[in-house]
Amino acid sequence: MNNLEDFANGPPVQEPADPELLDQLEEEPDAQPMIPAASAAVPVLNGGQQSDDSDSEFDVLDEGPIEDVAEDNGMEDAVNENERANAPGDDGIHHAPEDDGIHNAPEENQMNEEPENNEMDDEPQNDNAPENNEIDDEPQNDPEAIENVEEPRVQQKKTGRARKSVRKGNNMWLTTRGNKNRSKNNCLQFSLKPAEVAEKKVFLKKMQELMLHRTANGDMMYKPGCKEFLEIFAQHEHLLRNNKFKIKVWNDSKEYNKKLGNFNVPHLFKTSKDLRLRAPDINFQNVVTFLWESDDVLVINSMTRETTKMSMKSFLDTFNEERGDQALNMLSLEVSKLETINKELEEVEYVRNVSMVSILERALAARKDKLMRHRNDANSARELPLVKKMMKEMPRYTKFVLVSMEKSFTDTHVDMSASSVFYHVDEGRKVFYVAPPTEANLKMYKDVELGKKDVWLLEEFWDQWQRIEIKKGQTAMLPSGWLHFVWTPEDSIVFGGNFLREEDLERHIEFTELEIQCQDHGTAGLDSEFLFRKFYPLLFAYIQYVVLPDIEEFPLVPNDERLTALQVFAKLEGKPDEDWMSTSEQNRIVELLRSEMAKVAIEDNEPSTSQGRLSLASISEPKNKKTRNH
């Protein structure tokens, strides 16, 4: 539950490598993730926002064959050209054409560049939809590749589930062939081949046998991340994929807001230009020049799970030394206060727009300016020091620099306060294995964290893990509550961050309380260093400086879309011993919110189309709210 890779069952361990999996998906802005029918869906707060997606967070698969054919003029030639270009290379993996439109043969041993069997979901018939595609689940038992391209637009024929039409986009083509299954909402499935199914069973058996070894005290002898564990894991980790739910993979990041949608499934952007992430040119040769200011950093040896503090120079020097049985992993360096890098590193734009911390910071900056203009007023003079204090002590978690040795491994966890994550690989590779936040999954996770159950979560969710490989220059975004563990197949430098969203506030509070319980009971190896600092003071300040001013400007109306998120804020009660506000002041602020909400009647679940913003987070948009018409 630490930052990006976090501590779950002990100190963090790290991340996976590179096989022929994840490219199972292509883009479709409104597609939903898939889980087994037996899994219970966890409702996600939308902050009142409406979605084109289905009502449930995870849809149940409705299997059925579908035949794909090319229908545009000239497509036959494109298909033939693509078939010639996609002949398997030495690695046996079929690769997509490059962005320049030239179909290149795959490089030797290049895993997962465009894995075997990539598919495209049908997009709704909407000319305004982003011209990009979510790489969807791979076709079943198809030995041939699906050509995946930069920005094709796909439309579903109205005559049922028989075909896809393929349209030209950015001088590139998408062609599909092979046997597929899809659900009612056009979600294609991926299935392991029979030989892989058998291999995955052997993989699990090997892992189970390894974990059975115990010390005299009954502790696990070979813990996840140790040398013996990694010898088995590295051989078979590419099999940790399934046909139960999907992850969205995008060839570019244009119109990322449409692609992210409600942001309730993981996304991988193969190029990050339009995410507006700004980062310095860092590599292993010059990284010390950017990080030399930092104090001693917390470093974890994934193989032994030992944690130590080292100077930055000493830590980086170990990358050039004989490593032996160590895989050092630096996960907790947030660089907002380091002048040498802070100004050159900027989070992805989406995070700046929706992060509750970022929204509050902007609101406080505006309030400070107003108070400064009226500082001779007695009320302003009293409030100004508090606003300055909040700005100075604001918890910042969106500018992490993670430096990891090859073979680093982080065991299963949910990030602190169930915060969402963005993760940009600057050097090397990382592999995430994710499982959806179903009610059953989260209950199991909580029981393990609280010491109520003694099970190994990697094994417990064995058939749910979905593999996401993040290569150099790519950016992954993981929503709130998704369970994950991470493997580092080669030395890596990563820029990333954690952020809270109003839409996920209920889950943020739920997991913050879980972490406090774990800390109080001494379970899960947590201490205050790995909790989201000033979580509750942040929420009360958010009500005072963001929520209430917004209601004042746009009064609530019956069935207002904002009420969903406001109901969560209204349940808060003052917390003792908080230095931003007294408990009585916190309660006063919440009572003000409740009184505003009491002025309107919640008649039904349908949102009003009257005034009021679509989401409180839209305060982050650089627009004149006065002119907005909702």
UniProtKB/TrEMBL annotation:
Residues 91-106 have a biased composition (Basic and acidic residues). Transmembrane segments: none annotated. Residues 373-516 form the JmjC domain. It comes from the Eukaryota. The keyword Calcium does not apply. PROSITE patterns: JMJC (PS51184). It holds the Pfam family Cupin_8. Residues 1-180, 603-630 are annotated as: Disordered. Residues 155-167 have a biased composition (Basic residues). Keywords: Iron, Metal-binding, Oxidoreductase, Transcription, Transcription regulation. Residues 17-30, 52-80, 110-125, 133-149 have a biased composition (Acidic residues). GO terms for molecular function: metal ion binding; oxidoreductase activity. Signal peptide: none annotated. SUPFAM superfamilies: Clavaminate synthase-like. Coiled coil: none annotated. This is JmjC domain-containing protein. The gene is Cnig_chr_X.g24904.
